[in-house]
Amino acid sequence: MNSNSKLNRVLIVGGTHGNEFTGSYLIKKFQQYPELIRRTNFETLTLLANPRAFKEVRRYINRDLNHCFSRLDLQDTTISGYEDLRAKEIDQIFGPNSQNPIDFIFDLHSTTTNMGLTLIVDDYDFFSLQLAADLSYLNPDIKVYTFGYSYPSQNLLPLRSICKSSICVEVGAVAQGILNAEIFLKTEALVYAILDYLEKYNRGEIPSKQNTLTLYKYTEAVYFPRNEHGEIQAMIHPQLEFKDYLPLHPNDPILLTLDGQTITYKGDSIVYPTFINEAAYYEKGIAMCLTQKHQITI
Amino acid sequence: MNSNSKLNRVLIVGGTHGNEFTGSYLIKKFQQYPELIRRTNFETLTLLANPRAFKEVRRYINRDLNHCFSRLDLQDTTISGYEDLRAKEIDQIFGPNSQNPIDFIFDLHSTTTNMGLTLIVDDYDFFSLQLAADLSYLNPDIKVYTFGYSYPSQNLLPLRSICKSSICVEVGAVAQGILNAEIFLKTEALVYAILDYLEKYNRGEIPSKQNTLTLYKYTEAVYFPRNEHGEIQAMIHPQLEFKDYLPLHPNDPILLTLDGQTITYKGDSIVYPTFINEAAYYEKGIAMCLTQKHQITI
């Protein structure tokens, strides 16, 4: 988005993963009470992205919907899993070639990890970085995270990639398949804060001053050790559990094997672990993601 | 079990629900290191009860395995879902009509609720009540819970019902589909404590003195309000979240509707809620179970 263009249509997404209830139930609430998300100078739309997975309380039916949005996949007529078809449908209604493309998306996720209120942005998306800087300045509990260019790969683009500017809201810790009222209320407040920011932006009321922002940049994933059957052989070390965003020093414990051996962090500088013990990452064998902490000026 | 009979075969079960990882990974550990559960005067066996659900990280494939053990179902040749067949297989190997029936079962479960270390016993099972009294005396963090006669109904008998004496170990809070090291280690220690008790019992070293026991008896379930589509319309109230086993007074908040209204407890005496916000109970619409707290002498 260039700095002069106004937003016409904003899309709030929930239930991209069917077992992350916070977003799904917020979408249902907003659909029941649309006045809550109505703002004066743009249209707000809502989407329950994966209704079948929501109904079955699963992350996905055939494959992760949040990996189905590369142009290659969207144009591939030979793939027809439930999520593949759903991605095409979503792209036709809201995508760049639709009649009324969306100008800004934010997608509501939750996590079993203790990531609190996290905004995930793309580090080339200047508009979202500014929004994240503004919100995290107003509420220092908000952390800002980026996978940079390294994730997702160009073959596994997320839903929000159908729009040039977008944010993923990631809130935890909350188990899959439940609502936690505190998490729900915090996420709801964050939705309103984002909408209020967008309204101010459309009014030209966002000052063009320089912002500083603490940005956690993904560097690598740490994998669980596995046996020959692919079964994990370790857990998050109790000293690291729920310590997302806190500094991890060389030789600090990170994993505890099932037979009681401590595995330490072998890097040579401080890193900031995130997604520590995310249930959805077990199928990939990922124990946590490491980040570096940057102070950036935008 | 009468007071003179010795235990010959003890079965430790995990993974009755495929997304409760603590028990499954403990079973795998015990299968890898059988010396950990070996005791001098009985044989210890292990069972990963629902391997397919474990692999798919789901509670069950076709229906809850822990509801498949009524004699009627086990003898019904017309039912053939995955869990129905698995139940028959388990009954044939370990059940009362098998070549070497089991004398005592304990089944390792986990919960998204903050129930800490809970032993679920049947209130007519004198042997298990004594075991629970002894363990909770040694470790006051252990709570003892019973569904009494009201649950499960005679049509939905649990796996452990194939044995005359049994305990269900229920540990939380832990999200589905993850391992939490602290929960894992606590459950493992509890397994060893149970085995040590059984070994002492076989040696005749359990004193026949009277024991007192705090027993939480299930009285009723509290349901989420739902709309005409069956979708829940409220969450656990933030003031009640994670407050399992703490006293709930008349007019205390229990639920918060999605549109922000507080629902209070309408009973006329103190109760002790359990299973507050159990993910697996959402499909039944159960928000929590209420219990009464009894001091009993056995």
Structure description:
Two copies of one chain form a homodimer. Chain A is α/β, with parallel strands linked by helices and 298 residues long. In chain A, 24% of the residues lie in helices and 25% in strands. Chain A has helices at 21-32, 51-56, 71-75, 82-94, 126-138, 181-202, and strands at 9-14, 43-48, 104-110, 116-120, 142-146, 166-172, 212-223, 234-236, 253-257, 262-264, 272-274, 286-297. Chain A has a nine-stranded mixed β-sheet. Chain A is globular and about 60 Å long. At the A-B interface, helix 1 and helix 6 of A face helix 1 and helix 6 of B.
Brief descriptors of the model:
9-stranded mixed sheet; 298 residues; 24% helix; alpha/beta; homodimer; 3-stranded antiparallel sheet
* Separate helix tally of chain A: 6
The main sheet of chain A orders its strands as 2-1-3-6-4-5-7-12-11
Q: What shape does the CA trace of chain A take?
A: globular
Please state the oligomeric state of the protein chains shown. homodimer
Largest sheet of chain A: 9 strands, mixed
Strand content of chain A: 15-25%
Structural class of chain A: alpha/beta
